[in-house]
Amino acid sequence: MAALFIQLYRDEPLLQLPFRVLTSLMDIDEQLTHWRSSHALMVQPMLGSKIGTGGSSGYDYLESSLSGKRLFADLFDLSTYLIPRSQLPALSASLIWNLGFNQDCH
């Protein structure tokens, strides 16, 4: 729920860094998936259906590890719940103030 709030209101000053963190986590997940795919394609001609170096079933194991094995699948599913920015409910003034970089000097 917090990630969805961050995604929807990412332009608020205090949510810009958390949004970048979420984006970075998704980028890491994407790169790991790409690496797994490249690794499986590299291993296939070498091992075929032989047992892998770690005792796994080799290429078949690597290929099965590709489907649906995202680390942060929930972050990728957030887009299911996004609504057009024009339809976002306005935040209350006090919440906007709390999401800003404000100082209360006494």
General description of the model:
- This is Tryptophan 2,3-dioxygenase.
- InterPro entries: Trp/Indoleamine_2_3_dOase-like (IPR037217), Trp_2_3_dOase (IPR004981).
- Pfam families: Trp_dioxygenase.
- Keywords: Oxidoreductase.
- By secondary structure, this protein is mainly α.
- The protein has a domain at 39-68.
- Helices cover 53% and strands 0% of the residues.
- The protein has helices at residues 2-8, 16-47, 59-64, 73-77, 93-98.
- It starts with a helix and ends in an 8-residue tail after the last helix.
- The mean pLDDT is 83.
Total beta strands: 0
* Helix proportion: 40-55%
Mean pLDDT: 83
Percent strand: under 5%
Major sheet characteristics: none
Q: Rg from C-alpha positions?
A: 21 Å
Determine the structural class based on helices, strands and strand pairing.
mainly alpha
Shape: elongated
List the helices and strands and how they pair.
Layout: H1 2-8, H2 16-47, H3 59-64, H4 73-77, H5 93-98
Which key phrases capture this entry?
mainly alpha; 106 residues; 5 helices; single chain; 0% strand
What's this, in brief?
The chain is built from five helices and no strands. The longest helix has 32 residues. GO terms for molecular function: heme binding; L-tryptophan 2,3-dioxygenase activity; metal ion binding.
